[in-house]
Structures are given as structure tokens and as C-alpha cells.
Automatic annotation (TrEMBL):
Coiled coil: none annotated. InterPro entries: Asp/hSer_DH_NAD-bd, HDH, HDH_cat, HDH_CS, NAD(P)-bd_dom_sf. Pathway: Amino-acid biosynthesis; L-threonine biosynthesis; L-threonine from L-aspartate: step 3/5; Amino-acid biosynthesis; L-methionine biosynthesis via de novo pathway; L-homoserine from L-aspartate: step 3/3. It comes from the Bacteria. It comes from Tepidibacter hydrothermalis. This is Homoserine dehydrogenase. GO terms for molecular function: homoserine dehydrogenase activity. It is an enzyme of class 1 (oxidoreductase). Residues 8-117 form the Aspartate/homoserine dehydrogenase NAD-binding domain. Pfam families: Homoserine_dh, NAD_binding_3.
Length: 402
């Protein structure tokens, strides 16, 4: 009998306990750690619930499953568990993207395993596939909708005209959002996931703090309407590619045209397209957040750790050099809140040869479509406009069709 302790009995933790109770006679749920024990007095596992970490470390446990989230005390608990020679399973992307290298090294030194399938893509088996199935391939690019909460919000705003605030509230009620939802909204959660995937795929340390991260907090109904007029929808995409030894990575809202695979990915679903040099394009799609989909990924790691499956990760790669600009040439949608429309229009026509313009004098907004341009040039012109006194704010979105 394998004895499992689950740290955290929230959305994912309670899902894991449910799957353990439902599935396997060889796995015994021995202890559950929570913060506020009163909240759990009606839980059917209440007799094994504790708010004291000593009850976990003092017990004869084989596997510790960390589902508290955040950095502290999750980091200390995982470290101690590994040093006590317990296998550890976590869904914590904050922790893996920050301390993955150190924790994997500690696991290795103690001859135990640290698994983290659920840290990216909720119920989608992406990490195992990237590491094992794609072992023979050089990965050229990763593109994905990596956050369920923001995809849920964008879908509700687009299809049901729900306000941003109400859509976020529903995502929180459904258990998709992080404890601090600004991680989702500002793109940090997607960035952490992209850094984990890119580190595994390119075997280079890809630190998300070194790449461009933009969230959906500036996306308005106007942008959604404009995207629809252009035959597309807005999605928050994580994109990375590896070319000639250099890595480009970013997280940003993008307009994807309706025939793109991503346009059909709605609500809390995630989708990740990986391109390998031998296999070509592979698409992984499924629920990227929520109780039982995420618990499924955690449970699969429990099975792997019982079978002592190899996960020879160490993350001790050399640091990646991150490119700031995508080499891709595409169309762009730029929204400018102006102070002086004449000056801004002059600048725009001077710098861009091929543009469509829409000026709204009531809202003091100029909506611009620029055809076939590189990011580097878009950024240079945007910075110039922003430095002038004529522009209050400016947002630019790539328009992608694949
Ligand atoms: N929700 C999702 O869809 C997904 C979540 N994840 C990740 O899974 C992890 C858990 O997320 P989720 O289940 O949503 O989080 P919740 O907020 O729903 O649950 C957190 C749990 O941890 C407990 N807890 C919090 N702080 C402490 C502490 N200091 N000591 C002991 N227990 C503590 C809470 O106790 P109490 O109940 O008493 O407050 C609660 O039971 C996170 O890393 C998250 O990023 C990954 C993929 C999807
Ligand atoms: N908050 C995250 C949960 C899963 O990782 C998300 O919305 O994707």
C-alpha cells in the first residue's frame, strides 16, 4: 500500500482526494493538510485533515502531493519532503518556474522524483509528451493558449458580451483563477508555463522574467469588436521559438483569424501547438484548468512515481539568450488614445506605407491596421509615438492566421 499525503484541499487538492478515493486500492490517502481546518469540518475526509505540517512529516508517507500554490510555504514543504526522501508531485508553476532547477537537483541527490505534469495545461498531458514522446525531436516552436481563466474571460466577452469583471468573477467561482487572479490577467501564469515548456523543449534555461509579458487587462469591447470585423478573435498566446541558437519568447494578446486552430479553443480549454523537426506540428488540446481535469494530471504523476518512471529532468541548462522581437512578419492592429489626432495621423502615415485608419473623435481613439510589418519596427514607431506629448496610450496586437 502506497501512502499519500496531500497538501491543500482546495480546487485541485479536493479533486485529487476524490480520484484517489474513487480509484485505487493500492493508494492510501493518509493525511490532508489545510490552512483553516474549520472550513473542512464537513469534508468526508475530515478524520485525516490536519492544519499541522508536523502531522505530515511525522507520518509514514511515501508520496507528498503539494497543492497549496504560491511560493511560501510550498517551497519549504517540498524541499523538506525531498530531503526526507519522499517523491513529490506538484501543480505549482510559480514554484517550478522559479525554483525548478534547485528542487530537481535536491530530488536527484536524494534519489527521489519530483513530478509536475499539472503545472502546465491543467489536464493536458504536455510535459510527459514533450520530455518523453518528443525525445528524438529538436523542438522548433511552442505556441499556446496556456491560461484557462483568461481564455474563459475572452470567450465570454466575445460570444456572450459579458463584461470583463463579471467573466472574471465567474472564472473565480468555477475555480479556474489563481488565488491572486492578477497572475492570470497580467499574463504571468502563462509566462511561467511557457518558461517551463521552453526550458524542457530547448534544453536552455528560459526565464520568463526576461521576455515580453502582456496580459488582457487592456482589452476592451472595442478591441473585441474590431477583431471580429477583421474576421478574428482575441486570444492570449504564449509563443516561443528556437532558431540558430536564439530563443524568442513572449506572452501577449493576439488576434487570431477564424480559420486558425486557436480560434476554436474556448472557455477554460487550453491548446498547445508544438513543432518538432521530425514529427512536424502536434496539437495538444483539453481543459487547462478546473478540479478534475487538473487532478487527472496529478493522479497520473502519482502513478508514475509508484512505477518509479524516469523523469530525468534537472533544468541545469545554460541560460537562454532571449530575443526581444519576433522575426515573424504579420499584420498589426494598433489602438491609440490620442491627445492630438493630427500629429499622430501625420506620424502614422509617415512611418507606415500600408495602413487602414479609423478615427473616433468622441473617444479620442485611432484604430490602425498595419499590413505586413516586423515587430521591431512596430515597437520603434510605438515608442516614438509614446514619447511624444500627442499620445496617451498605445496597444498593439499581432494578427496571426496559424
Ligand atoms: N485551479 C486550477 O484549475 C489549477 C490550479 N493549479 C495549481 O494548483 C495549485 C492549487 O490550486 P487550487 O487548488 O486552485 O488552490 P486553492 O486556493 O483552491 O486551494 C489551496 C489549498 O491550500 C491550502 N493552503 C493554503 N495555504 C496553506 C498553508 N499555508 N498551509 C496549509 N495549507 C494551505 C488551502 O487551505 P484552506 O482550504 O484551509 O484555505 C486550500 O485547501 C496551485 O499551485 C495552482 O496554481 C494548476 C492547474 C489548474
Ligand atoms: N489559473 C490557471 C489554473 C491552471 O493552471 C488557469 O486559469 O489556467
Amino acid at each position: 500500500m502506497i501512502s499519500v499525503a496531500v497538501l491543500g484541499n482546495g480546487v485541485v487538492g479536493s479533486g485529487v482526494c476524490e480520484l484517489i478515493n474513487k480509484n485505487d486500492n493500492n493508494i492510501k490517502l493518509s493525511k490532508i493538510l489545510v490552512k483553516n481546518i474549520d472550513k473542512h469540518k464537513n469534508d468526508k475526509n475530515h478524520n485525516i485533515i490536519t492544519d499541522k505540517i508536523e502531522d505530515i512529516f511525522g507520518k509514514d508517507i511515501d508520496i507528498v502531493v503539494e497543492l497549496i500554490g504560491g511560493i511560501h510555504p510550498a517551497y519549504e514543504y517540498i524541499k523538506k519532503s525531498l530531503n526526507n526522501k519522499k517523491h513529490v508531485i506538484t501543480a505549482n508553476k510559480d514554484l517550478i518556474s522559479k525554483y525548478g532547477e534547485e528542487l530537481l537537483e535536491i530530488a536527484y541527490q536524494n534519489n527521489v522524483k519530483l513530478y509536475f505534469e499539472a503545472s502546465v495545461g491543467g489536464g493536458i498531458p504536455i510535459i510527459k509528451n514533450l520530455k518523453n514522446y518528443l525525445a528524438s525531436n529538436e523542438i522548433k516552436s511552442i505556441k499556446g493558449i496556456l491560461n484557462g481563466t483568461t481564455n474563459f474571460i475572452l470567450t465570454k466577452m466575445d460570444k456572450e458580451k459579458t463584461s470583463y469583471t463579471n467573466a472574471l468573477k465567474t472564472a473565480q467561482e468555477l475555480g479556474f483563477a489563481e488565488a491572486d487572479p492578477s497572475s492570470d490577467i497580467k499574463g504571468y501564469d502563462s509566462a511561467r508555463k511557457l518558461s517551463i515548456l521552453s526550458t524542457i523543449a530547448y534544453e536552455k534555461k528560459v526565464n520568463w522574467e526576461n521576455f515580453k509579458v502582456e496580459g488582457i487587462d487592456d482589452i476592451t469591447e472595442t478591441d473585441i469588436k474590431k477583431a471580429n470585423e477583421l474576421g478574428g478573435v482575441i486570444k492570449l498566446l504564449g509563443i516561443s521559438n528556437f532558431e540558430k541558437g536564439k530563443i524568442y519568447a513572449s506572452v501577449r494578446p493576439v488576434i487570431v483569424t477564424k480559420d486558425s486552430e486557436f480560434a476554436k479553443i474556448n472557455n477554460e480549454y487550453n491548446s498547445i501547438i508544438v513543432e518538432g523537426d521530425s514529427v512536424g506540428r502536434l496539437t495538444f488540446t483539453g481543459k487547462g484548468a478546473g478540479k478534475l481535469p487538473t487532478a487527472t494530471a496529478v493522479y497520473s504523476d502519482i502513478v508514475d512515481s509508484i512505477q518509479n518512471k524516469e523523469n530525468s529532468f534537472l533544468f541545469n541548462y545554460e541560460k537562454a539568450f532571449i530575443e526581444n522581437h519576433s522575426s515573424e512578419q504579420c499584420d498589426w492592429y494598433i489602438k491609440i488614445n490620442y491627445k492630438n489626432s493630427h500629429k499622430v495621423l501625420n506620424e502614422l502615415t509617415e512611418h507606415f506605407k500600408n495602413i487602414d485608419l479609423e478615427v473616433n473623435k468622441k473617444t479620442n481613439q485611432i484604430l490602425v491596421i498595419v499590413k505586413s510589418e516586423h515587430e521591431e519596427y512596430i515597437n520603434a514607431v510605438s515608442n516614438k509615438l509614446l514619447q511624444s506629448q500627442d499620445v496617451k496610450s498605445l496597444n498593439s496586437l499581432m494578427i496571426l492566421n496559424n
